[in-house]
Amino acid sequence: MKINAILTMGFVVFMVTTTDAQEKRGRARDFGVFTGILHTGKYNAITDVAGVKVGHTTLIKGDSVRTGVTAIVPHGGNVFQDKVPAAIYVGNGFGKSMGLSQIKELGNLETPILLTNTLNTPLVANALIDYMLLQPGNEQVKSVNAMVGETNDGGLNDIRGRHVRAEDVLKAINEAKEGMVEEGCVGAGTGTEALGYKGGIGTSSRVLPASKGGYTVGVLVQSNFGGVLQINGAPVGRELNNFYLMDKSKPYKADGSCMIIIATDAPLSDRNLERLAKRSYIAFGNVGAFSSNGSGDYAVAFSTYERNRIPYQSKNKVRNIDDLNNDELSPLFMAVWEATEEALLNSLFMATDTKGNGREVKALPIKKTLEILKKYNALDQNTLPKAIEK
To answer: What family is it from (predicted)?
Structure first.
């Protein structure tokens, strides 16, 4: 597999060239699939929120190991000593994530967010705790709330082998970087499946007009769920005859889960971050998901706004924060909806055919998908964004 940098719409994107038997892959908008009307950030990624970094460790071994770890680091300092406001929205609670209850209770995040597979969750959490305890300034810390999200990649991966190790976790954290984010079959998305095709990691961002604050919202997803794929309202899954409750002779995975990680630089309290996280679920439904019984679907939102960070130890008994008025939140709600939907689509468009654990899951067939989108007039809808102020 080769990754080539190309220039599209004024910013650099990665075009993945696979083997001759597979189609060229790219991000959704590389093929004229646009979501919403707002402008993206420079990289159209969660890392467009200043200071946010992403790192992956991808494990592909033999015929059955297809898994990994993805790290989302909120800022470049000691996250435990300088916590960020955060919130959780539970779409469907069939999940084994760790750290959610304290975030919901206290309204802050004190570690990087790590994503992995279901059975590796406690192993990854243990490595993350070790990492945090060893950070300078944390020598006297006796409690850490490790945030680890998961989806079940047992269809393509030997999940019972629990192949992720501490060194894999540290690699993902230590190599996390700003700028372009790898997508598709990488990190925690290596063995995932979504909407009848190969899923994976996807990301996107939106920047509000200056008159609405100029804030950035970035989203990263780990897609691993079922449904009936829709793109810009076009019934792609139905047209491709690949959807939940289709012909019983054709296997289809409905369960599996989805993690949605949301970052913003807007000054928000944890209350309003929860409201922001809720809106991501609109996009989840827009692409055809319905949160099956066995799909644990979670949104985690945090703000990097520096004045609202929470010090581990403070001499002040009262904490004053900046929080946008409720009437100012609608543009952010729109941004998270658009960015989440495009991130989910990017996870599909950037994924490649994958064999593992005695199975093969095909990637979304881009050529056929584009033909369907043209049929339903759902392609190249890129005229409105030019009219939106920057």
So the answer is: Belongs to the peptidase S58 family.
User: Which residues are marked as active site?
Assistant: 257, 295, 297
Global pTM reads 0.93
Residues 108 and 99 sit within 8 Å (Cβ to Cβ): no
309: CB partners within 8 A, 6+ apart: 82, 83, 84, 85
Instruction: Give the CATH number of the domain where residue 267 resides.
Output: 3.60.70.12
User: Quick check: 49 and 220 in contact, CB under 8 A?
Assistant: no
What is the DSSP secondary-structure string of 97-164?
Answer: -BSHHHHHHH-EE-S-EEEEEGGGHHHHHHHHHHHHHTSTT-TT------EEEEE--TTTS-GGG---
Confidence label for 8 from pLDDT (cuts 50, 70 and 90)? very low
Range(s) of the domain holding residue 28: 2-381
**DSSP code per residue over 363-380:** PP-HHHHHHHHHHTT-S-
- Residue ranges of E strands in the chain: 2-8, 11-17, 53-61, 65-73, 82-92, 108-109, 113-117, 147-151, 193-194, 197-198, 200-207, 216-223, 258-264, 297-303, 310-311, 354-356, 359-361
> Distances in Å between the alpha carbon of 180 and those of 7, 98, 107, 280?
13, 27, 29, 22
Q: Read off the pLDDT of residues 195-211 as tens digits, 9 standing for 90 and up.
A: 999 999 999 999 999 99
Look up residue 247 and give its two tokens: 């012909």
Say if 187 falls within a structural domain.
yes
